[in-house]
Design the sequence.
């Protein structure tokens, strides 16, 4: 049966009567028969599973990649030549890559599964005029849902009755403070989720009070359902590393095929045997393919993940390690990432003056007493504060100043209260004093409280509160509010007895004004420095928050995301709705702060930056962040406050929810890319040296190296040093350079010309040694021995050349003497192991026969070592001139 489409209307902008009429229901709820009919029409109140592929299908799809096909061909060729070890290594790498690919594909399904797990298992609804408890999947549009503290909201609801209800919606809006709800109709039909105060959304949590509302959306028609749909339909982005590897594979394959065909043709033209030339051409192709590259890249990335884990960044997707290093834009949430996610008193106004949190204050001043008395915060035995973030901030302030709040409340206990109500925006408590009198403390909105004050406490002197003084206090309130501080006022009075009528009219009148408190969720101490480091590295931080514009602007200015004196640069979700995608793509660079945004806005912001050619990292902790996390080039979830949904959609999770950890990770990512570049430069320059040696030798009619020699060199002198290059420390100026950008490749920043001239050097030196060995032989009368010695010297020279050259690759343009020869202990060990493996096949009898090489005398070894070492001074000379040209350009 086809599912009927639910009504998609701005019910928050309609009154109760209209909503009831459109959903064809009443305040008494639906009848059981009508509910069953609607359940059949609209389907259960669940998120769609979506179509999922089997593990086998996902695994096989990983082998469609071009580079993987090339590697499989290389494995086959290696097996044909008898190098089973090389073939096995390649196959292991291919299978490992396929497993990682399957893991990555499973992330979207994990995110949607996590969404389903968040759903409420049961709900209280009105059916047939009675309140019944139902499984939440049985809810239908038109049901009347009852809510109370502790409930998880089971569907999207238009509230029609509330009693001080507060709902925590951080999973949807990103803001941790519970929202006080009401039933007032909202006039703006385009109001964002965070501004729909008469709505309760699926998967949000009721923290206080109770309420009742009309179910206006179930299943995929809820706000959470829309997010699930966005997650299921969004495409997985290809990381810059994957793009680079695919591009590199295609270029290498084309180049190798061309060279092999040309070599075969030249050999045939010179009268060589076709079978001999076929084998030589294939050996050249094998020499040119960097078989170990995927393994080396995977190992370098894995080592990077270990380093990042130690720095509180947990990587879920290996290529994300490198993507961080190329990031141009970091779109970050405010609450908890840039800020402490903890309301904190920053300023107080008392005795006619503003004091900062560090100033001394009399703990018995009425201001402090009201802050701690007119307060519902619970203090646990371990000192933990439990309650509304605004109220816990006040108690924490007093505790930090040295007040024993528990002891004071024991001396002057609460005996009565007038609870908070949203209409009057005040709450009062009454406390028994030791002398038999009673202390009434009232806190709330400054404008409302001042209406009820007739006096003011000025350093213990009680003075009349005239209009002039009231205006001064309102100006102070305004000044604090413009600093994005949440301002509350305190007042008190002392009475002889508890009023018989505990109403606002009786209790909250003729009060004495005590002062103001200004609080904010402050920025993390290290966040400002992290923003500065990011800017120095050419990375633009962009704040995206569900919070109000003024608060977002204040924090952004304090952190340096908005520069001093900068006007504009801020956009709200409502303003973004007025801009089409084409226009926004050209204007996205104008904005660094976005406030009151929805999940759709976050995705639009990420895509706009991507259209501008930027690599975008996106942080988030709520369900609302998941689509943008998946759309971004790298999604960064929060380990402490993050939902399982946001973590499931992320490539990386911050164990400490800290923005500075992202910046530290960017440095690690840049190091990883730089080290991969070094490994590629090393491998390809070595392979180019091998190709040139074989190609030119073929043109000259020399029989210089057999396939077994090439494969052994590739295995022992390429792989270990290349892996060890992955452990090179970050260069000192890594975070002083701009991001390399989306168009950058492994050959950027001088790598391509470097590997070309270095490959030419390697090929030229090897050919020179072979020529010298044939023209100045140790045994001039034995042609077979001359050829064996020449081949052995060429083999040893080419292998040792690559080991000495590995030192050159520690930096593309810096001198080896600046970088340091022996700082990387793993690298030094890799060089020694490779040199030993290369030497044993020459020095050990039996092994040298298997490799068709001979024993060399001391003079021959000196020539080989001298020629191999010459690669270092030759490259140093070229680097010197490269630096000189670069400095002249600057």
Sequence:
């Amino acid at each position: 049966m086809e599912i009927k489409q639910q009504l998609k209307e701005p019910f928050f902008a309609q009154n109760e009567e209209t909503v009831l009429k459109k959903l064809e229901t009443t305040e008494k709820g639906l009848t059981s028969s009508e509910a069953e009919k609607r359940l059949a029409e609209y389907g259960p109140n669940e998120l769609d599973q979506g179509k999922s592929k089997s593990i086998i299908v996902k695994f096989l799809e990983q082998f469609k990649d071009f580079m993987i096909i090339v590697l499989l061909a290389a494995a086959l060729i290696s097996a044909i030549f008898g190098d089973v070890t090389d073939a096995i290594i390649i196959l292991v790498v291919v299978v490992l890559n396929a497993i990682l690919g399957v893991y990555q594909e499973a992330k979207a399904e994990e995110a949607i599964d996590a969404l389903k797990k968040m759903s409420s298992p049961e709900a209280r609804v009105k059916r047939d005029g009675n309140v019944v408890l139902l499984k939440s999947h049985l809810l239908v549009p038109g049901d009347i849902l009852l809510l109370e503290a502790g409930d998880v909201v089971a569907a999207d609801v238009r509230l029609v009755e509330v009693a001080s209800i507060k709902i925590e919606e951080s999973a949807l809006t990103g803001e941790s403070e519970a929202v006080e709800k009401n039933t007032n109709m909202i006039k703006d039909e385009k109001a964002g989720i965070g501004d729909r105060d008469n709505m309760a959304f699926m998967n949000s949590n009721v923290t206080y009070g109770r309420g009742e509302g009309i179910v206006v959306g179930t299943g995929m028609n809820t706000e959470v359902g829309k997010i699930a749909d966005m997650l299921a339909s969004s495409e997985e982005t290809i990381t810059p590393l994957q793009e680079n590897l695919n591009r590199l594979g295609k270029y290498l394959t084309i180049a190798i095929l061309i060279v092999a065909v040309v070599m075969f043709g030249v050999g045939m033209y010179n009268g060589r045997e076709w079978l001999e030339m076929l084998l030589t051409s294939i050996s050249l192709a094998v020499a040119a393919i960097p078989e170990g590259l995927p393994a080396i890249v995977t190992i370098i990335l894995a080592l990077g993940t270990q380093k990042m884990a130690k720095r509180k960044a947990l990587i879920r997707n290996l290529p994300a390690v490198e993507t961080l290093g190329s990031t141009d834009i970091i779109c970050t949430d405010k609450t908890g990432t840039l800020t402490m996610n903890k309301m904190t008193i920053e300023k107080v106004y008392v005795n006619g003056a503003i004091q900062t949190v560090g100033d001394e204050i009399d703990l018995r001043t009425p201001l402090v007493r009201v802050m701690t008395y007119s307060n519902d915060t619970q203090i646990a035995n371990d000192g933990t504060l439990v309650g509304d973030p605004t109220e816990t901030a006040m108690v924490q302030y007093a505790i930090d100043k040295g007040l024993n709040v528990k002891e004071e409340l024991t001396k002057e206990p609460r005996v009565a209260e007038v609870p908070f109500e949203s209409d009057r925006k005040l709450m009062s408590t009454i406390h028994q004093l030791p002398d038999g009198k009673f202390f009434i403390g009232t806190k709330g909105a400054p404008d409302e409280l001042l209406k009820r004050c007739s006096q003011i406490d000025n350093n213990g002197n009680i003075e009349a509160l005239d209009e002039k003084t009231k205006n001064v206090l309102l100006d102070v309130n305004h000044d604090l509010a413009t600093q994005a501080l949440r301002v509350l006022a305190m007042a008190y009075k002392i009475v002889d007895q508890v009023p018989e009528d505990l109403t606002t009219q009786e209790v909250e009148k003729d009060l004495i004004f005590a002062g103001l408190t200004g609080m904010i969720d402050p920025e993390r101490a290290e966040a400002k420095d992290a923003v500065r480091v990011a800017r120095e590295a050419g990375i633009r931080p962009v704040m995206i928050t569900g919070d109000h514009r003024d608060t977002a602007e204040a924090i952004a200015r304090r952190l340096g995301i908005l520069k001093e004196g900068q006007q504009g640069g801020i956009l709200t979700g409502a303003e973004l709705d007025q801009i089409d995608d084409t226009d926004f793509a050209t204007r996205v660079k104008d904005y660094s702060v976005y406030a009151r945004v929805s999940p759709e806005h976050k995705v639009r912001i990420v895509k706009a930056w991507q259209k501008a050619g930027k690599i975008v990292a996106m942080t988030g902790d709520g369900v609302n962040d998941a689509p943008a996390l998946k759309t971004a080039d790298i999604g960064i979830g929060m380990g402490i406050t993050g939902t399982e949904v946001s973590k499931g959609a992320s490539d990386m999770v911050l164990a400490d929810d800290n923005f500075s950890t992202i910046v530290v990770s960017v440095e690690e990512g840049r190091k990883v890319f730089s080290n991969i570049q070094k490994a590629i430069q090393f491998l390809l320059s070595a392979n180019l040296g091998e190709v040139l040696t074989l190609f030119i030798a073929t043109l000259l009619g020399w029989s210089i190296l057999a396939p077994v020699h090439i494969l052994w060199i590739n295995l022992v002198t390429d792989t270990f040093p290349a892996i060890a290059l992955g452990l090179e420390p970050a260069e000192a100026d890594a975070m002083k350079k701009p991001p390399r950008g989306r168009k950058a490749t492994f050959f950027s920043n001088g790598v391509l010309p470097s590997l070309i001239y270095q490959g030419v050097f390697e090929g030229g030196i090897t050919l020179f040694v072979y020529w010298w060995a044939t023209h100045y032989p140790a045994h001039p009368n034995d042609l077979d021995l001359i050829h064996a010695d020449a081949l052995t010297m060429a083999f040893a020279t080419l292998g040792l050349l690559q080991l000495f050259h590995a030192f050159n690759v520690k930096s593309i343009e810096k001198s080896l003497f600046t970088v340091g020869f022996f700082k990387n202990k793993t690298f030094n060990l890799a060089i020694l192991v490779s040199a030993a493996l290369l030497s044993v096949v020459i020095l050990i009898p039996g092994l040298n026969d298997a490799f068709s090489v001979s024993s060399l005398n001391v003079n021959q070894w000196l020539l080989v070592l001298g020629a191999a070492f010459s690669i270092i001074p030759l490259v140093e000379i070229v680097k010197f001139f490269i630096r000189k040209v670069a400095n002249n350009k600057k």
